[in-house]
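Subject: design request, 323 residues
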């Protein structure tokens, strides 16, 4: 696993009995640190059904200011403080989200025992960088400024050419470890060069995690080389044609056609309208997707877990029905 995505909310606009509003927990192979994309009301309740700790949450990335994507933020951060979190937290969000959070904190007498560092979504694409991890934001089309986040994880590991070392007569042991660490090793009157017996393997996984968006093609650049796209599919095309352009959301067909043209191998649809959340509606969304997209397509449910490896393969653990 390079990237692990746990869906904490997959409904659009309002929660339903089976689905919360938007929230997505993102873990990486790099360690215990994880981050959150969107924090709709009730996100912290969903988190309690996962093994994730608020002490290890390093950042919250909000796609846009609409309430179903951010109304859970003050409660979540307050709970982290009551849990004795002291580690600073990065809040990557449009300026109105920060202004609303600051007003809420002031007016509700919320005192956090840790610092919240706001990063506005300005002109720079890069919003977070750590060893092996890069997060970029990409502009979308919605009624308010909305963004997607491209997450790239990269690992490096040194592999020894064991057959070549055995052929040279060097037995496994400290000398092998020295070669793996980049050191040259004297052996039988000659010098064994690390460059000849060790090779660096680089594994990369990239996923694009979208907010609300009426024009999937705006993510063409973001999806170059990406192995997974998570995108809202609020409606079927028939339903979108009826509601018109006002809501500024995507249909399953629009997303599927884009993912096909962008050659993204894996597609996860989320942010599903309550009108489609029965068996018939879900079947219609999937049929519409598969009619226009030949890759691996999924409809996300709350608490589903998707794991992406360096080869671009996705493993899915579906939530139990009682959750």
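Subject: RE: design request

Done. Sequence follows.
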């Amino acid at each position: 696993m390079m990237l692990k995505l746990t869906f904490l909310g997959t409904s659009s606009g309002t929660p339903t009995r089976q689905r919360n509003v938007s929230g997505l927990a993102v873990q990486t192979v790099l360690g215990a640190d994880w981050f959150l994309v969107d924090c709709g009301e009730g996100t912290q309740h969903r988190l309690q059904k996962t093994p994730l700790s608020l002490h290890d949450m390093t950042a919250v990335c909000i796609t846009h200011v609409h309430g179903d994507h951010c109304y859970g933020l003050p409660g979540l951060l307050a709970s982290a403080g009551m849990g004795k979190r002291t580690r600073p937290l990065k809040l990557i969000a449009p300026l109105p989200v920060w202004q609303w959070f600051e007003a809420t904190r002031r007016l509700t007498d919320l005192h956090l025992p840790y610092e919240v560092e706001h990063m506005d979504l300005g002109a720079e694409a890069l919003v977070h960088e750590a060893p092996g991890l890069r997060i970029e934001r990409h502009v979308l089309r919605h009624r308010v400024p909305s963004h997607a986040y491209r997450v790239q994880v990269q690992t490096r590991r040194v592999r020894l050419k064991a057959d070549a070392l055995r052929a040279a007569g060097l037995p496994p042991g400290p000398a092998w470890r020295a070669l793996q660490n980049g050191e040259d090793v004297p052996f039988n009157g000659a010098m064994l060069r690390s460059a000849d017996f060790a090779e660096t393997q680089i594994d990369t996984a990239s996923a694009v995690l979208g907010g609300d968006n009426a024009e999937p093609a705006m993510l063409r650049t973001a999806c170059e080389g990406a192995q997974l796209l998570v995108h809202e599919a609020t409606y079927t095309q028939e339903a979108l044609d009826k509601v018109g352009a006002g809501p500024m959301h995507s249909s399953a067909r629009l997303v599927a056609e884009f993912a096909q043209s962008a050659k993204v191998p894996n597609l996860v649809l989320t942010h599903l309208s309550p009108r489609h959340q029965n068996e018939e509606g879900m079947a219609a969304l999937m049929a519409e997707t598969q009619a226009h997209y030949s890759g691996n397509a999924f409809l996300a449910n709350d608490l589903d877990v998707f794991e992406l490896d360096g080869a671009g393969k996705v493993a899915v653990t579906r939530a139990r029905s009682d959750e």
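The chain has a mean pLDDT of 96.
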